[in-house]
Amino acid sequence: MEPLEIVRAWRRDDPRCVADAKSFWREIGMPDDVAEERAAELCVVAYLGGRLAGVSTARLGDFPPLKGRFAHLRCAVSPAARRKDVAARIIGHTRTVLEAWAADHVQENLLGMVAILQSGELREKQREPIWPIYGIDLTLIGYTPRGEQVRVGWFRHARLD
């Protein structure tokens, strides 16, 4: 398998990462205004064989079920890169990036990351309540009204009020 190059884009405004992500999002049918908004949330960009393989974004905000602030995670992988552990590796790296950033920005009071799983390709993986692979450590905590899994990864420095 070709090596996966993972690039940290969180809060860096890297022109290459932003342009590649916007192009990727356009290819998968995302409207330009949504892509522009997501570009500000870009966290990790991954390349496989020099081509964009996937991206992660994070929006910081409250997560009422756990009464705290979390990074609301999104991850998208190109069809050509699916079933190659690309998503898991992106999410693992995203966790590392966000956790380090949160530890350096304690005033943000960011406790972890939350993800709502929408990909049908993860059905078999969803049978596992905890995902320790690649340091993801996302734990199933419930379901949305539409039946989508909600998973949370607590940062090691997190403390509850």
Automatic annotation (TrEMBL):
Alphabetized GO MF terms: acyltransferase activity, transferring groups other than amino-acyl groups
Protein's UniProt name: N-acetyltransferase domain-containing protein
Limits of the N-acetyltransferase domain: 8-101
One Pfam assignment: Acetyltransf_1
Organism superkingdom: Bacteria
